[in-house]
Amino acid sequence: MIERAIDGSTTSPPDIPKAVTELCDALEAIDADGWYPVIDVVRPWSRHNPQITGEFARPGTIRRYLERELAALLELGATITVRPSRPARSIDDPDLLRALDENAWEMRAKKLFLFAPERMALSMERLTHYCGTPAESFQRYVLFTNYKMHVEEFRNRFPDAEGPVRPDVQMPAWHHRTPDQDGVSIVDIGVGPSNAKTVTDHIAVLRPDAMLMIGHCAGLRNHQDIGDYVVATAYLRDDRILDHALPTTIPVIPNHRLNSYLLDALDAREAHYRNGTVLTTANRNWELEIAAMEHTFEQSRAVAVDMESATIATNGFRYRIPSATLLCISDKPLHGAPKLADRARRFYDASRRAHLEITLECIDRVRREHPAGIPNADIRSPGEPLFGAPAVE
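User: That's the sequence. What structure does it adopt?
Assistant: Structure tokens below.
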């Protein structure tokens, strides 16, 4: 059986890239032999959790993530061992379901990775099914949209982008791939929180560096016009789809750095925008219950309504992935400007390119300033390091 151990305290900095390559090659070889590989990390700086362990499935899919995190651990002086754990379960094994139950998986415990290998394997298969592209194609920055036109603009911006291998997939994805996997992926999730939850449940195992929602919304304030942008600073969760997993009493907010970069890009273009609470609802026809909704708007001081943003942000919070939201106002039902076909078409034609470009400018800045990932201590549990580790713990 393959086993490889590297002591970071005795590995010189120039030798770390080679050591990381050996570890990742060993992981993939174990996987190819039909086993779940396991990584054991001994961290001499930790008083309370000197050893943490994690099992993996299809490690080649997240190799760039593993390379970055393993290198950081070796630089801190950790000892890392890669070895076989147990035979991998077939994806059609009935016992797989029990291993997938997150209610039985202690997500707060100190561990090397948030997901069991069975969960990883299933999610990667589901991404291929729902998005029409291999899980390996996803990049470190992921955009979600509820309109095909944003995908069309993405493909115009990146004509070499890789797309679905078959027609009529439920949530088609396109990927501008780079050698370091620090390109951008976009997923057309359609309208509604159900797809937003489904796809982020599965993308979470790939450990993206950021998730951003770019979509349309209804503006709620007098001093907003159709075509203005909305940057979410908080979310009012009326999507109801993740209440069982994360109570609505738990605050969910976007990543501050992502928001600041979005605001800088908007200011540089002198674009009109407003910050504030975005209400995400599961009710596409909320206008038919206007009395109750107006009361909610007044109490929450929300500035916009959509159907996906809070769902993506909530899963970002649950799975420790920095997220943010940039919406564009397509209608104002409270002010006599409902979404009508001709008016909507003019708005779409005018807004689609700028909306995408502002978001890509934000991602370019993240790529430059945070190549090791956006600091996300605000969405980590105090006792759970995910993968990286502080010098003192």
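The two ends are 34 Å apart (CA to CA).
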